[in-house]
Write a structure and sequence with these properties.
The complex is a heterodimer of chains A (about 725) and B (about 230). Chain A is about 55% helix and about 20% strand. Chain A has 22 helices and 21 strands. Chain A is elongated and about 100 Å long. The two termini of chain A are about 15 Å apart. Chain B is of the alpha/beta class and about 230 residues long. Chain B has helices spanning about 45-50, 75-85, 100-110, 115-120, 140-150, 170-185, and strands at about 1-15, 15-30, 35, 60-65, 65-70, 85-90, 155-160, 190-195, 205-210, 210-220. In chain B, the strands form two sheets. In chain B, strands 6-7-8-3-9-10 form a six-stranded mixed beta sheet, sandwiched between helices. Chain B has a four-stranded antiparallel beta sheet with strand order 2-1-4-5, covered by helices on one side. In chain B, strand 9 (about 205-210) and strand 10 (about 210-220) form a beta hairpin. The chains are: A alpha+beta (about 725), B alpha/beta (about 230). The interface of A and B includes residues 387 and 638 of A.
Chain lengths: ~725, ~230
């Protein structure tokens, strides 16, 4: 076997490298996340109590172990520090560098703060008037967006730090200590019992608040969300890459056997047995084996680039690389065996034909029904086009796949970007306030009404399908003063909250709980249940909030009290630790939005790279196979006086049409299938990604695909122009 | 008229320079039947390739009725081949996925020749139009390749061992068709062959050895195809 003639097998290696790199990267990431989860001994819930003295009784009653999460918050001119003791048994910090602080001169800082401020081990950090040395850099389960400040200011890794220190250092700070508890159910508690216990705790009058890990966006978004994202990526990679590579390899095998049909016919005529002839095709196995092994090993070189960028983007604990010999053997030998056997079987099948027919390289008997169609008189050019297309069903499929993959991936990428922009714009539209305030003490309603466009209350929401949101929020909007805007999903216009006689739910809730206008929802506030109908659905794709106007809230009884301690909108208010529990400002919303956009940009970029890489690889293979299998006929046409341009048009143009048909299918796929997938995702997560046909995304995808396709065609035209009759005759 | 002067064509074989054509000169009149004979490696196929415009010589000239083709660019050469020449090969090179009729149209379409029924009938291919090449015998396939070549109405027909893969009887049939159609359509045939017997039906015989023409014989009275044997 001459290597230079085995370009298809070189492509096998390229495909294998590509798919193995991705697979290893994804699998290792998921594996690392699981290890991190196991190491951290993550909490099942966070608990705050009215009276901290009852924690032991509660832990016995509901069968959980606990860790007091005591902390102090220190504000200096520039930064905010949440200082905690280094004595955790639940939510154990994961040190990516260094060790836990032991001395009074040492502290450990969180990874985000260290990255954003370029701080390394041993560097000094001054808190107040004291300077400490960094002994370790860690991450906690709530790594993406931990709570640092307690005045409502959103998380900013540049100016907010989590600090772990020794008991002595902790006690030196005079700030007020605050306490919550991280709880973890005992091993003996079943999953079902955990849910029951959580629900009972929610109703327990001794409990101020309880939030399960699943409902805690800080923890959920850090690792679970990443794991989910990896799984989605893995599934899409496997479905796109796997299918493509499988079809490519099958095409390559069939093509190489077809090209050798005449030789095989001669051998058969000479008396060689079918098995003797076919067994040489087992040789494809070593090529696949080498490809997969190289792919697996290359992944160790390439994946740190991915890992570093992903860790930097998503701020998640380090993904580590471990060589897994079992995985290595599986990744290399299984595909090698599969393709060896497949090539052997196809060869045996091809050898069923009489030797003479094989020597003459006759048309496949199986395709005769197709060939009959082109026996109808056609002009030469049309006949060649039809014949090439109809005799190469696999190539047609690959050409379709070319357009399909480019279209689907590019449009998903652009749609994600558009969705991110839309979510941001919705957030901005819906947040026409300068600051939100929550007071430490309850305020009299009459005092609040005058300057309160909206207020909210924590609640439990039960939906008609039985679904429950334990950490929901009920928000009442002032009909006249509210600057908190809601937009109708059906009418694409502002919802007039004053006309709503029930509640407004968002689009994520609609998808997750199969809601529609007219359904009745139960809202539990302080153990009292209120039943309200849904009168409108607003556009937000995330958020566990339902809305009503003040009149409905008062009429229903939700506001039948003289004092209220919820969230209020109040402009131009500065945080006062004696009066306010927190003051969150609109600029925090802007910052969070920009962070979120960065995440979607990274995901979109990944889809664009995958789509274009696969598309270009596939069309290259299609072109290569068409040209190599029609080499002598191209030469013949040229000898007769057909120009290079005519040859290109006659032989290659048909596949352009097919690729663009694939593009149309890809567009439909992006619209329909991803909508279904994202609806399913909405049910399993806390966000509903809207997938609507976007003409700009389609147009942009088409332009990118057309340019990529034509560039590849241009390159292969050059290769086709180089075909000469002498070269073919020499062979 | 075709005039060839001092054609030189060499190939690099490792460090050695091999001359496939070494200062070859000759002239061929219109409507001649020229046979080029010679052992393998004598340069006869290279000569055919160069004079038909498939290959460029190192030096020398090839002139068709005062039109010099050496030095033409690729596009000009393509247009020349489209206008003047056609080919027949030992391996036929029919497009296996096209019917007889579509294969013949490959030639006809180049010259806008809509009527191919005459040539189909002349070559005895009537009734085979819808067949695919693998459904034909070798002789039938060669007849299709002749029909394909002549459907473009060439002035020069270049034949590279057209009967090399055929038995004597079929070969004679092919040669008979060629002779008849030459008389009818008035084109020049330049044929490369190993078979010395074929030389007897030619009007000019060129013998080559080691890239040189060693003998040119004109035959004022070529024999009929049925009079020769091999």
């Amino acid at each position: 076997m001459k290597f230079k003639k085995q370009y298809p097998l070189v492509l096998v290696v390229v495909c294998a490298v590509f798919i193995c790199t991705l697979l290893v990267f994804y699998l290792q990431s998921i594996d690392s996340i699981k290890k991190v989860l196991a190491h951290q001994n993550q909490q099942d819930f966070t608990l705050t109590l009215h009276d901290e003295g009852i924690i032991t009784d509660l832990s016995n009653k509901y069968s959980f172990s606990y860790d007091p999460m005591t902390y102090k918050v220190i504000y200096d001119e520039k930064n905010v520090y949440r200082i905690m003791q280094n004595t955790r048994h639940i939510d154990i910090p994961l040190y990516s560098e260094g060790v836990a602080p032991q001395k009074t001169t040492e502290i450990a800082i969180d990874k985000n703060f260290s990255q954003d401020n370029k701080l390394a081990l041993g560097d000094p950090v001054t808190i107040g008037n004291t300077t400490y040395s960094i002994s370790g850099i860690f991450t906690l389960p709530d790594a993406i967006s931990p709570l640092v400040a307690d005045n409502g200011v959103g998380y900013k890794p540049t100016t907010q730090a989590l600090i772990l220190c020794s008991e002595e250092v902790y006690s030196n700070w005079d700030e007020q200590e605050k306490t919550s508890y991280a709880g973890r159910f005992l091993e003996s508690v079943s999953e079902e019992q955990k849910q029951t216990n959580l629900e009972e705790m929610l109703m327990d009058s001794q409990v101020k608040s309880v939030m399960s890990k699943e409902d805690n966006p800080q923890i959920l978004s850090a690792l679970s969300a990443k794991e989910k994202m990896f799984k989605i990526s893995l599934i899409s990679a496997l479905s796109f890459f796997g299918l493509t590579v499988l079809v490519l390899l099958i095409t390559i095998v069939i093509q190489s056997i077809t090209e050798k049909k005449s030789t095989m016919g001669v051998l058969k005529a000479l008396g060689y047995a079918r098995i003797q002839i076919a067994k040489r095709y087992f040789l494809i196995g070593p090529f696949v084996l080498i490809g997969a092994a190289v792919g697996y090993l290359v992944s160790y070189v390439v994946s740190p680039l991915f890992i570093n960028s992903m860790n930097a983007t998503f701020l998640v604990p380090n993904v580590t690389q471990n060589f897994d010999p079992v995985q290595f053997i599986l990744f290399t030998t299984v595909p090698a065996l599969f393709f060896s056997v497949m090539a052997f079987v196809i060869a045996i099948f091809s050898l069923r034909k009489p030797p003479l027919e094989m020597i003459r390289n006759g048309t496949s008997v199986k395709l005769n029904f197709l060939v009959k169609r082109i026996r109808i008189t056609n002009p030469f050019k049309k006949a060649v086009f039809k014949a090439i297309v109809l005799n190469n069903i696999l190539l047609v499929f690959l050409a379709l796949l070319t357009g399909f993959m480019a279209s689907a991936n590019l449009q998903i990428a652009f749609s994600l970007q558009a969705m991110s922009d839309k979510v941001s714009s919705l957030t901005f539209k819906g947040s026409e306030y300068k600051s939100n305030v929550r007071f430490i003490e309850a305020k009299e309603m009459k005092f609040l009404d005058a300057e309160t466009p909206y207020f909210s209350e924590d609640c439990k929401i039960e939906f008609p399908d039985g679904g429950v949101l334990n950490n929901g929020q009920f928000m009442a909007l002032s009909s006249s003063l509210s600057r908190f805007k809601l937009y109708s999903i059906q009418k694409q216009e502002t919802i007039d909250i004053s006309k709503q006689e029930g509640i407004v739910v968002n689009d994520w809730m609609r998808k997750k709980y199969d809601l529609s206008v007219g359904d009745t929802v139960k809202i539990y506030v302080n153990n009292v249940v209120y039943q309200l109908p849904i009168t409108a659905i607003e556009q937000s794709v995330y958020g566990e909030v339902v809305y009503s106007n003040m009149d409905v809230a008062i009429h229903t009884g939700l506001l039948e009290k003289e004092e209220y301690n919820g969230v209020f909108t109040k402009d131009n208010v500065e945080f006062d630790s004696k009066r306010h529990l927190f003051v969150s400002k609109f600029e925090d919303v802007l910052y969070a939005s920009s962070q979120q956009k960065g995440t979607y940009f990274a995901l979109s970029f990944l889809f664009i790279i995958i789509g274009l890489a696969l598309s270009i690889l596939t069309i290259s293979i299609v072109m290569k196979i068409i040209i190599s299998s029609n080499r002598k006929y191209l030469a013949m046409m040229k000898a007769f006086g057909y120009t290079n341009l005519e040859c290109n048009r006659i032989v290659l143009s048909g596949f352009r049409i097919i690729a663009y048909i694939g593009f149309i299918f890809g567009t439909l796929y992006a619209i329909v299938v991803t909508k279904i997938l994202f609806d399913l995702l909405a049910k399993a997560s806390t966000i509903a990604i809207p997938m609507t046909p976007d003409s700009k995304a389609i147009a942009l995808s088409l332009v990118i695909f057309a340019v990529s396709y034509e560039v590849i065609m241009l390159l292969y035209r050059k290769s086709m122009n180089a075909v000469s009759l002498q070269e073919v005759m020499m062979k | 008229m075709l005039r060839i002067e001092n054609l030189v064509k060499s190939y690099q074989n490792g460090r050695e320079l091999l001359y496939a054509l070494n200062a070859v000169s000759l002239s061929i009149d219109d409507e001649e039947f020229v046979v080029i004979l010679g052992p393998s490696g004598s340069g006869k196929s290279t000569l055919l390739n160069v004079i038909s415009g498939l290959e460029q010589p190192d030096s020398g000239s090839v002139t068709y009725d005062d039109y010099e083709i050496c030095g033409l660019n690729q596009k000009e050469m393509t247009l020349f081949r489209r206008d003047k020449t056609a080919f027949i090969f030992q391996a036929y090179y029919l497009l296996p996925f096209l019917t007889v009729e579509s294969n013949i149209k490959m030639g006809a379409d180049l010259k806008g020749n809509k009527n191919i029924s005459d040539i189909i009938d002349a070559l005895g291919l009537g009734g085979l139009e819808k067949r695919l090449p693998y459904e034909l015998s070798g002789g039938q396939q060669q007849r299709v390749s002749i029909a394909r070549a002549l459907a473009k109405k060439p002035d020069f027909l270049f034949c590279d061992e057209p009967t090399g893969a055929l038995d004597e009887e079929t070969s004679k049939q092919i040669l008979t068709f060629l002779k008849q159609l030459q008389k009818q359509l008035k084109f020049t045939i330049i044929m490369v062959t190993h078979n010395a017997s074929i030389a007897q039906i030619a009007t000019k015989v060129i013998k080559m050895t080691s890239g040189k023409i060693v003998e040119v014989t004109s035959n004022a009275h070529p024999r009929d195809v049925n009079e020769i044997t091999w």
